[in-house]
Amino acid sequence: MMQLTTSPAAVFELAEAGDQRWRAHVDETWRGWTGPHGGVIAALTIEVARRACGLDLPVRTLDLRFLGRPDDGALTFRAVSRPLGRSTHIVEVLAEQRGASVASASITFGRTGTTRIPDRPGRAAPPVPQAEACQRFRIPAEIVAVGAHFDIRPAAGPLPLTGADDAWMTAWIALTPTMTTDAAALAILADALPPAIFPTLTAPLAVPTVALSLYLHTDFAEPATPSVLVHAANSGTGGGWSVDDTDIWDERGRLLASARQSRRVLG
């Protein structure tokens, strides 16, 4: 039986509000460490940019910066579209809540073409058991409500809050409800695991995202699988800041996206 999927735009009721403005609603079940899940806001900026662009072009990059602390409820998005020649289009999106700016993003769209440089496959997925062979890991709802929307199945590496020596995690992740695995869904999945420093800790603390960059390695001409393999590694922590790098592959071993997050350590 074919699995029914939806889009982030439908899940969060994204609707046009006129004059290059859109509204969406993020309820409390999508709450992360300090507010609405950062990946959800990133996904919504991509969906807004796609509509503002008005062209059927693949997403190539997202650069998101948080400007304030958003709350649950309605968000308003404003978009400015900037075409660059015939193959590239950039859309700048500002997210607002109750008149205050909470995030800004720049989304780059680019047409697929052929060049004299041969295609090269991205980084290979690490050898891990298939998702069905991995036990599900549940993030306690009392810590982060959004955990109920992620089917996380650790496949390699230490678990969060185990006092491990290594600061990395690898897990199969699927979204609940099931969403089409596109650029917007990948923005959510890139932020699905706890901060990569968490395996070295024994108690949770707030490590919110300040900046998130997402780089797409596919134009989705071949659809990606709903369950993806996510590898997140801490590349360094110090002075109250922490940087994570993330790679995402589908079940066929195809590298879909890479991401980098800069986080503030509050504690």
From TrEMBL:
This is Thioesterase family protein. SUPFAM superfamilies: Thioesterase/thiol ester dehydrase-isomerase. Residues 28-110 form the Acyl-CoA thioesterase-like N-terminal HotDog domain. InterPro entries: ACOT8-like_C, Acyl-CoA_hotdog, HotDog_dom_sf, Sec_Metab_Biosynth-Assoc, TesB_ACOT8-like_N. It comes from Nocardia aurea. Pfam families: 4HBT_3, 4HBT_3C. Residues 136-262 form the Acyl-CoA thioesterase-like C-terminal domain.
